[in-house]
Amino acid sequence: MDERKIILSGIKPSGDLTLGSYIGAIKNWVELADQYDCFYMMADLHAITVRQVPADLRRRTLAQIAQYIACGLDPEKNTIFIQSQVPEHTQLGWVLDCYTMFGELSRMTQFKDKSAKNADNINAGLFTYPSLMAADILIYQADLVPVGEDQKQHVELTRDIAHRFNTIYGDVFKLPEPFIPKVGARIMSLQTPENKMSKSETDNGGCVCLMDKPEAIMKAFKRAVTDSETSVHFDRENKPGVSNLMQIYSVATGSTFEQIQQEFAGKGYGDFKVKVGEAVVEMLRPIREEAERILADKAYLEKVYREGAEKASYAARKTLRKVYKKVGFVQ
Ligand code: TYM
Q: How far apart are the first and last CA of the chain?
């Protein structure tokens, strides 16, 4: 029997992949890929909680697959799939809706933030999103969920839902752990460093995307907001901009905060920002080039997501069958 532990994670194709998602999530996926059985999806079902232009959603979903592979996820070793092509997610999602409390969902920070931002479209999907996310994770009996800091609350809720279900029906679900990186779990906007870098910020230079060209990346870093001092040191509270750039530089170069402080001692922010930009350009260059190459090969991409959905569905069905039986559906 295969004793390898299981990982599940995903990203919504509601925007182009950002440096934040890369550092907070994908980079860790690649590092964990050899030790685990991994399922990585394009969370398109989650994307439609906010209105999407259909053609853009389709284009970004395919581009995201190419980018996952270009980041180093080998489709031979990882199950890469599109969430909407594995209907078991929504099937389990409904069941879990019935084991998730209104109060729990009301407390989710992301629900509160998103409903404030989309006041004219606070739909039921936005509200029950975390129980679908719980289904994504629990249906594969995942041990580990590598995500950025902002998703931790959803993984914790997943554990609560699983625990509640197990208490009633016996051990059906494994309780998953969030896996959050020590550095880079919350990459901030380059323009408003008190806010998370997010896909919705591509227009104002606050966000860098994996497919951005070197000139665009350099421009964004040169314009990055810092503070009125001149010294490069880590102080998240008082120097959010500089601290954010230090985290990005640390991930891109492997340097510790201490080494970074030494490297830029006595130099101004101008120098620092250029160096961070250059490091990011070099980190992302091979990914962009490889993703462009893969994206041009439509037949290969289709093979990856078709085989991925088949493998995912096979694994998901096992859990779904058990759940249906437990709750009393006729077999
Ligand atoms: P999403 O699409 O908002 O983000 C994808 C992943 O990237 C991380 N992330 C960041 N990390 C650090 N700094 C940032 N600025 C930053 N922005 C994004 C997120 O924490 C996340 O890990 N609900 C999920 C998608 C999802 C999912 C799942 C994840 C659906 N089902 C099951 C794990 C397991 C989401 O909206 O992520």
A: 26
